[in-house]
Design a protein that fits this description.
single chain; 143 residues; alpha+beta; 5-stranded antiparallel beta sheet; 4 helices; globular
Length: 143
């Protein structure tokens, strides 16, 4: 997909419920494909990882996590669109029956989030997100 078409597609998706920069707008939860297809913008996710990695490296890790039998869904939470090249995400949410410390261990050490916890926390208003029976939303956050 050409970058222009990919950027147009993701711009429409991210702003579907309103301006993502407006705190009243629910945080868009994009599928792995929605966020990463056409995305080659380093820093659009995992911006504080060192050494820096491209978004497709993170995509590969998330796809492996999504394939686990104890994972129901993986979504990228877009928190800003202040870079004109691609939206920014500092969180990934995982619908799973696993505990946050287990989820942390699913990431390669060089891609591990700064923290994981059971969400959603107060003020983290998202699009609807279906959870498995007995499962929870585990938030993975990169600082």
């Amino acid at each position: 997909m050409l970058m222009g078409a990919a950027l147009e597609r993701i711009t429409e998706r991210v702003n579907r419920l309103g301006d993502v920069e407006d705190p009243e707008t629910p945080t868009p939860l994009l599928t792995i494909d929605e966020f990463f297809e056409g995305n080659d913008v380093v820093g659009s996710i995992g911006c504080n990882l060192y050494p820096e990695v491209g978004p497709q490296v993170i995509r590969e890790a998330l796809v492996r996590i999504a394939e686990r039998s104890d994972v129901y869904d993986v979504r990228v939470a877009v928190s800003a669109f202040d870079d004109p090249d691609w939206p920014f995400a500092e969180r990934v949410v995982i619908a799973t029956t696993a505990a946050p410390d287990q989820v942390m261990g699913w990431f390669p050490e060089d891609l591990a989030p700064s923290d994981t916890w059971v969400g959603p926390e107060e003020g983290f208003n998202t699009e609807p997100f279906e959870l498995p029976s007995g499962g929870s939303m585990v938030v993975c956050w990169w600082d």
